[in-house]
TrEMBL record:
Gene Ontology terms for molecular function: enoyl-CoA hydratase activity
Phylogenetic placement of the source organism: Bacteria, Pseudomonadati, Pseudomonadota, Betaproteobacteria, Burkholderiales
Family per similarity comment: Belongs to the enoyl-CoA hydratase/isomerase family.
Protein keywords: Lyase
Leading EC class: lyase
Protein name: Enoyl-CoA hydratase/carnithine racemase
PANTHER family: ENOYL-COA HYDRATASE, IP11341P-RELATED
Keyword Lyase applies: yes
InterPro entries: ClpP/crotonase-like_dom_sf, Enoyl-CoA_hyd/isom_CS, Enoyl-CoA_hydra/iso
Protein EC: 4.2.1.17
């Protein structure tokens, strides 16, 4: 697929997807959803793209849905996927990516933009970023995790404040509330994220995938059930090449040669 609204590039073992509608603050339209779905499918299938970074061009990460596209999507022919259907499919693909996903939150992140960012595993923000839900400002109901995922990130009371007011918070506040893992000066954001992604890509892709699976499941399990799940995965992992290679490399004082199996 020829991309018009995103840039998908591979930098060594790291995939970078940049939302690229800067004049529209990277607002999501039908074309962007289709292109994101295509690029995410490619990243998922390619073992050479071990880590994914998602960011935006210009002064926004993503300002949410393009409201004109949202209105146009209401007239979709019966039986055809509408804007909401495509959004659900694309965000689900990102949320369930078996590889580490880092959001480099470079600027304005509103409504669907916040939902997109919350699909990622680690969120690193620029100091100038302004972040919020924003759906209520236009009478739009969230459909990608605003009301369902945000309370899990910041707690119910804080989520309601962001949802009901539509207000934006600065990056430091969102780090304090647990949305952002780290906040960096604007000029340091992309180099720092690139370095972090490269460090992760040097690890065993198998162990990272399995860690992500167990960690994601744990939030919906009791402590006992989560610990049993972890133990079962641990036992399975001891039969892998990467487990044995890591121990052998340690004993031989050399870098491990992981194969992801």
């Amino acid at each position: 697929m020829h991309y018009e609204t995103i840039i998908h590039e591979q930098r060594g073992p790291v995939a970078w997807i940049t939302l690229n509608r800067p004049a529209e603050l990277n607002a999501v339209n039908q074309r962007m959803l289709e292109e994101l779905h295509d690029a995410l499918t490619a990243v998922r299938a390619d073992a050479g793209q071990a880590v994914l970074v998602l960011t935006g061009s210009g002064r926004a990460f993503c300002a949410g849905a393009d409201l004109k596209a949202l209105l146009a999507g209401l007239d979709t022919a019966p039986g055809e996927p509408n804007f909401a259907d495509r959004t659900l499919a694309t965000l689900s693909l990102l949320r369930n990516m078996p590889k580490p996903v880092i959001a480099a939150v470079n600027g304005l992140t509103i409504a669907g933009g916040l939902e997109l960012a919350m699909c990622c595993d680690i969120l690193i923000g620029a100091a100038s970023a302004r972040i919020g839900d924003g759906h209520a400002n236009f009478g739009v109901f969230p459909g990608g995790g605003g009301a369902a995922v945000l309370p899990r990130r910041v707690g119910l009371s804080r989520a309601k404040q962001l949802l009901f007011t539509g207000d934006l918070a600065d990056a430091a506040q969102m780090q304090a509330w647990g949305v952002l893992n780290e906040v960096l000066p604007d000029e340091e954001l992309l180099p720092a994220v690139a370095a972090l992604a490269e460090r992760m890509a040097a690890r065993s892709s198998l162990v990272l995938r399995r860690m992500k699976e167990v960690a994601n499941r744990s939030v919906d399990l009791s402590m006992d059930a989560a610990l049993r799940d972890e133990l079962l995965m641990c036992q399975q992992h001891t039969r892998s090449h990467d487990f044995r290679e890591g121990l052998a490399a340690y004993g031989e004082k050399r870098p491990p040669a992981f194969r992801g199996i």
